[in-house]
Protein: HD superfamily hydrolase
Amino acid sequence: MSYITTNSKIHFTPHNPNKDDIDINDIAHALAHMCRANGHFNSFYSVAQHSINCSLEARAKGYSKDVQLACLLHDASEAYMSDITRPVKKLLPQYLDIEERLQKAIYEKFNISDVSPDTIKEIDDALLYYEFIYLLGEKVFDDEPELIGKPDFTQRDFINVKNEFIDIYNQLTSDVQIFKTVGIDGCDGGWMIAMLSNSRLSIERYNRIADVLDAHKTADKFIIDIPIGLADSREEAAHRPENAARKILKGKSSSIFPVPFRSVARAKTAAEAWNISKELNAGANYMTMGIRDAVNEIDIFLQENETWKNVLYESHPEVCFALLNGGNPVMEKKSEEQGIEKRLEILEKYGIDRVDVTQHPLFTKYRDDVVDAVCLALVGKFAVEGKSATIPIEDEIKADATGIKMQMIIPNL
Structure:
């Protein structure tokens, strides 16, 4: 047999490639399954993830879309002929000849030309250097190369890596507006995220908010169900959006909890938090204390990462579901089957395929968190399309003492 069968059922001949048979989905699928370093890294790290990091590094360095695309596809030949380690490859001239012709055909297929091989090699080698340090604890070069971006070397789900590879390809090649939004909801021991990119939905769970934002830093909008912008006094707290949001949730306003003051969030123990709240007459209740750690994690992250201030936006799923439901709050509880069903019906009206939600492995254990995260990702999409508003209205938004706006993003259809 002189051909291979690709994931899309194409019979492909690597040594005599037909450009019409080269398919971006096959490339993304295969590279996402292939491990770098011949499988010797401490955790699985795919060729696709390496290629994504190379493309993002080219973007961080300010290179053109052509260079970014060339970096994304610089190892695409491996999707059709696998890879051989560098020491062995240089001893196989026929392999190198086939690889060169195949890679040339791939670049021609995707209209990549006039890109300096030296530029691609510089970025490729820089990622190689830091991959070996992070994933094997070894320096492969004497001189430390420059790295502008913050590549993700963590072990990631194959499907999400494949989807990101395709998303970046679409962003670099399409004249159609490509959007990527991330909805974030707190869950037991971490954060549930839904990533919406055009019609594609991905769902993931992370332990830390820093990991969420680092993994999805190229997204257009980030919407989270956690208070952002913390008051230090009752006077400042009056500028928070909770009171206005409660008016939208008539008959269900208790879904919106009192927000801890910053000093309450920072308290080292629950007892200390209660004492501070009483001293400041902060109006905290047990629900406030239940979200205190998550609020504190977000606030500390924002204080330590100034560029994320007023980029990570607050919202509230129940407020959003009400507005997406014609202004009518969803009275059924999320903890009950009927409540989940009602919210899925609302999401379906706006293009979310319930199968993508309910068939995801995380849905079984984190049902309400997944649904809330998807809702927030959808709100992010509306924001990208100019179909959002804020609570309070823009002219009335105030910032907290650290410059973070105290607002909620809501759909405005």
